[in-house]
Design goal:
It is a single chain. The protein is globular. The chain contains seven helices and two strands. The model has no long low-confidence stretch (mean pLDDT 91). Helix 1 packs parallel to helix 4, helix 2 runs antiparallel to helix 4 and helix 4 packs across helix 5. The longest helix has 23 residues. By secondary structure, the protein is mainly α. It has a two-stranded antiparallel sheet.
Amino acid sequence: MPIDELRILDAIVTRASLDLVTKITPADLTKPTPCSAWTLHGLLAHMATQHHGFAAAAEGETDLGHWRLLPLGDDPVETYRASVKRVLNAFVPHDLADRKFALPEFSTEVTFTAEQALGFHFVDYLVHSWDVAKTLGLPITFQQEVLDAGLRFAESIPDGKNRKAPGAAFAPAVDEKGPSDLDTIVALLGRSPSWSRHEAVLA
């Protein structure tokens, strides 16, 4: 996919995640999420940290410290907003396609092309937008071109034993279908399309 097209799609899902995050109240931060290891506070900290990590990678940084979990501080929404601004700005440079990205979450042994890195970021925040929407009980929709690209990326990510390793970017695929392409994407990347925050509280 051309890097300029991928930049646009990535910005769409990243901004969608921010739109959802701005609706979070302090009481929401303790709610369970489709990412079973995290409450909404933990998920939000992860999302903000990843933005900073990808931004650092786009700027040529390789230090693992850029991926260390960041505190959300007294205003989690503003902390997240700042992380979104940083990563979107980091993906702007005209020579981005020529850069190599160090992404320790995916591999500490190789670097990735800009297209690969933006693809990872795009599909990650497509799914994380769904995570936040589900947690808050809010609807979420995307243009078909976003979903088409999301399906291609989700189908291309290997569903092997690495997905069961500690710190894996995605859980094993779920054999569960929903009525939409977004349901298919989240199932391919380890979420149950039928996840309910009410059921998670009772579990």
